[in-house]
Each structure stands twice: as C-alpha cells, then as structure tokens.
DNA sequence: GGGCGCTGTCATCTG
DNA sequence: CTCAGATGACAGCGC
C-alpha cells in the first residue's frame, strides 16, 4: 500500500509536469513547499488537525507497528520533495543535462469510429527518458503521431528565425486551429454557455502553443498513445480510461504537433511570449472536451475520487448529461481549482476508499498510526527519568519511585476510583485514537458536559475486546487513578470537561496535579511535534525558494545573453546593410561612398540619411564632453 | 563508545 | 490569573 501511495505521488507529480506542459496550470509548489503541504493535515480550525496531528504518524506502516524514522517506508513522504526538486532542477541547465521527453500521442480517427475507444496505453519505455543525448529527441519526433511534449534541458531559448516555409507551416497550423476554435465557439454560443470562460483556461496553454508552433518540426503520425511503463502502471492501477480523460487528444488535434521547450523557459517566458503574440494567434490547441464515449462504460468512471477528478476532468459533464461543449469544452477555473485542491494530503482520505478494492488482501489500514502523539503504545522513557523523579505525585505518594508502585498505591486507594477502575477496561488507544484523524476534536467535544461524559464512557465500554497495549507512563497513571478516560482524552478534552472531571471524581490534590501534568505534558508533546514539523517545513520552504531564485537567476542570465546576441546580430546586419546601400550610392564625383567614412542613419520618421561617420563620432565625442562638463559643473 | 537524529519533557514567553 | 500554544534547551534512547 505504501508503494502504491509512493507510486501515486510520483505519478501525480509527473502527471502535473505533463499538465503544465500542455497548458494546465497545476500549482505544485503549493503542495510541497507551502505551510500546509499535502503531507500535512490541513487546517481545521482553532484546534486543527494540523496542530494536533503528530508529524510522525506518517511514518507508520500499514501494519500499525512503529517504524524507525529512517525506515525506507518513509520514502513516500520525501519522494514528493525529491521529485519537486528534480522538477525544479529541470529548469537549470547548469546543474545537469536532463531532458524529459514525454509523449502524449493521440489517435487520429479515420472515420470517427475510433474516437471513443480507449487509447492504447502500451507504450515504449523510451518515450519518457532522462537522457542527455540530443539526437534521441529527434528520433522520437520522427516516430510518432500526435503531439509530443519534449522538455529539453539543453535546448536553446531563442527561437531561430523562421524561414518562409516554416512560417507558412505555422500559419497554416494556426489557421486550422483557429477554425476549430471558431466552430467550438459557435457551438458554445448556441448552447448558451458562459462565453467568458471560453478561452480562459486555454490561455495558459497559449505559450506552449506558440512555442509549439514556433518550433521546428511536425512529427509524422504515430498511432496509439505511448506512455512509459511507470505511467502505464500508474494509470492501470486506477483503471482510468485515458481517452476519457483526454478526449481532446483524440478529436481535437488533427495535427500532430511537437515542440521543444525548456521547462524553465516555459515557466519563465510564459508571460512574455503571450504578450508578444497577437491575441488572434492564441488559439486554444488543447481542449478538454468530453466525448460521448468518455463514459460509455460506467465502470470507467468508478475510479477513485482522485482519478475521477484529476484525470477525468470532463467526466462530470457527461455524467450530468450536459453537453460536451457546455461543460467539457474547455477547462474552467473550477477544474483548476479542483486540481489545485487535490493536494496529496487528500490521499489520506482518498486512498482508503479507492484502494480498498484494489488491495483487499491488506488487512490493516495503512492509515493506521502508531508512534505519535502521546506515545500511548509505549514509552521508552525509563522510570529513572528526571521528570519522573520530579513528579509531584510521586513525592506525595511517599517517595514511590517506580511506576508500578505508583499504580499499586493508587489502585489500593480504593473507593470510587477503584470501583470505576474495575468497571473500566483499558482502551485500545491505537485503534481508538489514531484511526480517527478528527481526534483533535473528540466526538463529544461540542456536546454538553454530561453528554460528553456519557459518550466517552459508552465508547470506553464498547472497547471490551481491546487488546492491552503497552502504555505510556502517564497512561498507566491515569489507569491507576481508575478514571474512565485515557490520557489522550484527558489531554484533548475541553478544559470545561477537564475541570468537571477533576471535580466529579473526588480526586485528591496530588491526583489533580497529576492529571494537570498529564494534560500539560500531552499538549506540550503535540506542540513540540508541531514546532519541529514547522521548523522542518520552513527549512524546506526556504530551500525551495533558494532553488527557485537560482532558477530565476539562471533564466535571467540566459535571457541577457540571448538579448546581447540578438543585439549584436542586429548590429551586424545593419552594418552589412549599410555597406551594401553605401556601395550603391555615389558622391558628387561619381565615386561610391566609402562605408568607412559614411554610415546610414535611420531617423524616427522613417527617413534614412547618409551621415559622415567621422562627424557622428566627433559629435558623439562632443556630446560626451558636454555631458562631462555639465556633470562637473553640477557639484 | 561516540555521533546523530528523534522524541519527550521542562521552562519560559506570548496571546 | 488561567489556559493554550510556541519554542529553546536538555536528556534519553535507538541506530
């Protein structure tokens, strides 16, 4: 199960990369570097789960037993961060030559009969590769039909000046895409949908389209969708009909397209490119339009919550019997929001539902937590702990040093506590607490005190078959007091209930102090865990920021370099052109003008004048001297 | 046996 | 003043 989640996490990130490349913006950073990362429970209010969720409950295994923090089963926790760093590193060519060639190839139906069939997920494992070889990419381009997304770390940013043929090819493609968009617009207009959001979500793909259109080659067709084995496994786990998830891959892309763009460049230059292009050229190339065949098979839509929402972005449209152009014609903000809401933290709630059917042989829920919070199962702290020796309760009990003696002495106090203890069986706290992630707000927390008492007692009584667990020091103390509450409950119950407990149980002063210490220690334990988790998150966030700034710096440096090269090339072309023009001109004696002595000057009104080069130089020098004099006079 | 990381606990501060 | 939370510091434990 953990492999499943780890696998899913990696797959999700890779899928996010692909979505980003085809224009669907998915905020990955917010998932992993934000305060409320997906691997952290989300905020749920003043006593949120984030606050009270032990950090290390994620380290628990499916069997529920404790694992060491260094256990490899923690990998899935850190895998997301590692992958994120790798994704970030993709944009930095200075670090390592990496290229991700991810191909999404669509079928081009000949007669339309194939449009609804699921895409062939069998793919060549070489289609996704991390390879520094530049020539492999070209090979990939020549083998496939459809559109390929190739992230090349070593590809250049500046687009080479297009030849006339390339331009015509681009324009043709643009026109075709525009025509398709017009058709879709007309359909949408007839069906009275919100036109404002028509192109909204395709704007993000404008850059990719432009880069795509501006890139070099159009690969020949390839039938079938080729995915790397990891993707096949990843998708096959959820039984997702990929064609239903990306129907536009089949129907909306008659022209196979490929483009090479650096991932970083795609991110950095998105705004520039989008602004530099005329609006008319921003044609939505990738549409998320539902087809009739998307959900022809109801079982295909029965995947887990995440696949149905993540992959089948247009699934709800057809399920709700709305027309494809209404709901699935384009991605809308809700879809983006949904994607953004799909942080990995939701896996905690998704996976049990989704994976139950897939891994029925797993006896123990993987969500089971163990070593966390109050260390209710066990406490490695020896009785000789300093805190134990300083415990007021021990002092009051006549210097009892061992916990067993404490328990005995307390248990021997008899009275109501002992009677209550006889009627109360210990709670299997592992089962009772850590399976419920709402433990931050106990079930009866919001109820009245008496009902809260009753609810707790009933729950405690229902745990008759609970196996005795190795309990912590405080837990044993609570049991010794004969209270019908666990240490966890004492820690997490509202203060009103806690005070009522203190009053209602006829506790002595030392016992009250013990309960207060238990409550304080338990709360502080959670606070310490949160504090450490927060500190770790802060460090990771800062590391991510450093990484991002480094990538940004690299991009700016590259941009500066390219700008300088472009400027130099323009100057060179101007010089060549000037020499050519001057060579055609004659002075009053019929001699051709010497380019060494004359230059062309383009004025603002478009006039081109021939000026003596020496005069310009001298005038420039004169101007500089004038400026210098002015500067000297100023102080 | 020492280093290191994790964890619990205490003391203290803040809201 | 009480309470809850945050955080630095310290110590114990396991690897």
Estimated helix fraction: 40-55%
Write down how many β-strands occur, each being a DSSP E stretch of 2 or more residues: 5
Query: In angstroms, what separates the terminal alpha carbons?
Result: 76 Å
- Provide the β-strand percentage band: under 5%
Number of H- or I-type helical stretches: 28
Poorly predicted regions:
1-13, 25-469
What is the global morphology? elongated
> How do the strands of the widest beta sheet line up side by side?
1-2-3
What class do helices, strands and sheet pairing give? mainly alpha
Radius of gyration: 34 Å
Task: Please tell me the overall pLDDT.
Answer: 48
Instruction: Describe the sheet with the most strands.
Output: 3 strands, mixed
Main features:
two-stranded antiparallel sheet; 635 residues; mainly alpha; NFE2-like; disordered N terminus; 3-stranded mixed beta sheet; single chain; DNA-binding; RNA polymerase II cis-regulatory region sequence-specific DNA binding
Written overview of the protein:
By secondary structure, the chain is mainly alpha-helical. It is 50% helix and 4% strand. The protein has a 3-stranded mixed beta sheet. Strands 4-5 form a two-stranded antiparallel sheet. The chain starts with a helix and ends with a helix. The protein binds a DNA duplex (15 and 15 nucleotides) through residues 47, 51, 56, 68-70, 371, 375, 379-382, 384-387, 390, 495, 520-521, 523-532, 534-535. GO terms for molecular function: DNA-binding transcription factor activity, RNA polymerase II-specific; RNA polymerase II cis-regulatory region sequence-specific DNA binding. Residues 358-371 have a biased composition (Acidic residues). It holds the Pfam family bZIP_Maf.
């Amino acid at each position: 199960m953990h492999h499943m989640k780890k696998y899913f996490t990696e797959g999700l990130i890779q899928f996010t990369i692909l979505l980003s490349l085809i224009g669907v913006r998915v905020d990955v950073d917010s998932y992993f570097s934000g305060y409320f990362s997906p691997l952290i429970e989300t905020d749920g209010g003043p006593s949120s789960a984030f606050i009270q969720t032990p950090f290390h409950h994620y380290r628990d295994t499916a069997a529920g037993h404790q694992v060491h923090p260094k256990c490899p089963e923690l990998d899935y926790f850190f895998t997301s961060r590692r992958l994120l760093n790798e994704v970030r590193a993709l944009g930095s060519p200075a670090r390592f030559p990496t290229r991700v060639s991810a191909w999404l190839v669509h079928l081009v139906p000949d007669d339309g009969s194939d449009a609804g069939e699921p895409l062939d997920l069998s793919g060549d494992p070489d289609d996704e590769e991390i390879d520094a070889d530049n020539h492999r990419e070209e090979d990939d381009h020549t083998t496939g039909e459809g559109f390929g997304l190739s992230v090349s770390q070593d590809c250049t940013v500046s687009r080479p000046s297009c030849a006339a043929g390339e331009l015509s090819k681009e324009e043709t493609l643009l026109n075709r895409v525009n025509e398709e968009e017009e058709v879709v617009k007309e359909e949408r207009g007839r069906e009275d949908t919100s036109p404002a959001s028509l192109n909204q979500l395709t704007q993000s793909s404008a850059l990719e389209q432009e880069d795509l259109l501006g890139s070099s080659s159009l690969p020949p067709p390839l039938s079938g969708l080729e995915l790397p084995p990891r993707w096949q496994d990843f998708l096959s786990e959820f039984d997702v009909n990929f064609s239903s998830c990306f129907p536009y891959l089949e129907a909306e892309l008659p022209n196979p397209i490929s483009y090479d763009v650096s991932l970083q460049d795609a991110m950095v230059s998105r705004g520039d490119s989008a602004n530099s292009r005329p609006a008319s050229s921003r044609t939505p190339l990738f549409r998320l339009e539902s087809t009739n065949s998307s959900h022809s098979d109801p079982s295909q839509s029965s995947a887990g919550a995440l696949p149905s929402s993540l992959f089948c972005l247009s699934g709800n449209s057809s399920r709700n019997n709305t027309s494809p152009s209404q709901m699935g014609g384009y991605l809308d903000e809700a879809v983006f929001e949904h994607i953004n809401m799909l942080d990995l933290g939701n896996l905690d709630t998704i996976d049990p539902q989704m994976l139950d059917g897939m891994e029925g042989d797993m006896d123990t829920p993987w969500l089971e937590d163990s070593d966390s919070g109050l260390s209710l199962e066990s406490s490695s702290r020896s009785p000789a702990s300093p805190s134990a020796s300083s415990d007021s309760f021990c002092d009051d009990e006549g210097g009892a040093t061992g916990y067993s003696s404490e328990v005995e002495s307390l248990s021997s106090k008899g009275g109501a506590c002992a009677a209550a203890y006889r009627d109360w069986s210990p709670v299997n706290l592992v089962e009772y607490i850590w399976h419920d992630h709402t433990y931050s707000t106990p079930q009866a927390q919001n109820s009245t005190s008496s009902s809260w008492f009753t609810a707790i007692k009933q729950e405690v009584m229902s745990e008759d078959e609970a196996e005795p667990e190795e309990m912590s020091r405080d837990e044993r103390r609570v049991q010794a007091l004969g209270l019908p509450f666990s240490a966890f409950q004492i820690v997490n119950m509202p203060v009103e209930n806690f005070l009522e407990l203190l009053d209602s149980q006829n506790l002595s002063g030392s016992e009250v102090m013990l309960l207060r210490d238990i409550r304080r220690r338990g709360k502080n334990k959670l606070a310490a865990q949160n504090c450490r988790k927060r500190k770790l998150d802060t460090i990771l966030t800062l590391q991510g920021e450093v990484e991002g700034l480094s990538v940004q710096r690299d991009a700016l440096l590259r941009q500066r370099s390219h700008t300088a090269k472009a400027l130099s090339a323009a100057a060179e072309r101007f010089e060549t052109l000037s020499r050519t023009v001057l060579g055609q001109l004659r002075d009053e004696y019929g001699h051709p003008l010497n380019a060494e002595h004359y230059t062309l000057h383009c004025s603002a009104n478009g006039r081109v004048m021939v000026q003596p080069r020496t005069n310009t130089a001298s005038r420039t020098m004169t101007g500089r001297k004038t400026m210098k004099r002015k500067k000297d006079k100023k102080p």
